[in-house]
Specification:
This protein is mainly alpha-helical and 129 residues long. Helices cover 75% and strands 0% of the residues.
C-alpha cells in the first residue's frame, strides 16, 4: 500500500508540475524525472521549479518523500524489535519449582531402574546354556 501511494503521488506530482510550471517542465518526462528525484529525496538539482506554485508542490513532494522514508524505517525497525522481543521471551522462562525438580528426579530414577532391568536381561545368558 505504501509503495502504491508513493508511485501514485510521484506520477501525480509529475503531471501537476507540467500543468503549474509548464515553462520549466514542458514535457511529462522532465516532470516525472523531477518527481522521482524529489520523492526519493535525491534532488540532483538539474530541474528546479521557479514558480511559487511549483516550489509549493516541490515542498509537499519533499515532505511526502521524507515521510515515506520514515515509515519504511519504522516498519523495518519494528520488525527487528518484535523478533528480538520474541527471542528474549524465550530466554526469560521461569526457573523450575522444587516440586518440578523432585518430579523430574523421580522420573529419572524410574528410567534408571528400567534401564538396569533391560541391561540385566540383555547381558544374562539364555537359560539352558
Amino acid at each position: 500500500m505504501i509503495a502504491t501511494a508513493t508511485i501514485a503521488i510521484t506520477f501525480a506530482s509529475g503531471l501537476v508540475m507540467t500543468l503549474i510550471d509548464h515553462e520549466d517542465y514542458s514535457s511529462l518526462g522532465s516532470a516525472l524525472w523531477w518527481a522521482i528525484q524529489t520523492t526519493t529525496t535525491v534532488g540532483y538539482g538539474d530541474h528546479v521549479p521557479t514558480t511559487a506554485s511549483g516550489r509549493l508542490l516541490a515542498a509537499l513532494v519533499m515532505l511526502f518523500g521524507i515521510g515515506f522514508l520514515a515509515i519504511i524505517t519504522a516498519a523495518i525497525t519494528s520488525t527487528f524489535v518484535a523478533r528480538n522481543a520474541e527471542l528474549k521471551d524465550g530466554l526469560e522462562a521461569e526457573p523450575p519449582t522444587a516440586d518440578q525438580v523432585r518430579e523430574l528426579d523421580q522420573r529419572l530414577e524410574q528410567l534408571d531402574r528400567r534401564l538396569e532391568r533391560i541391561e540385566a536381561a540383555v547381558t544374562r545368558p539364555p537359560p539352558g546354556r
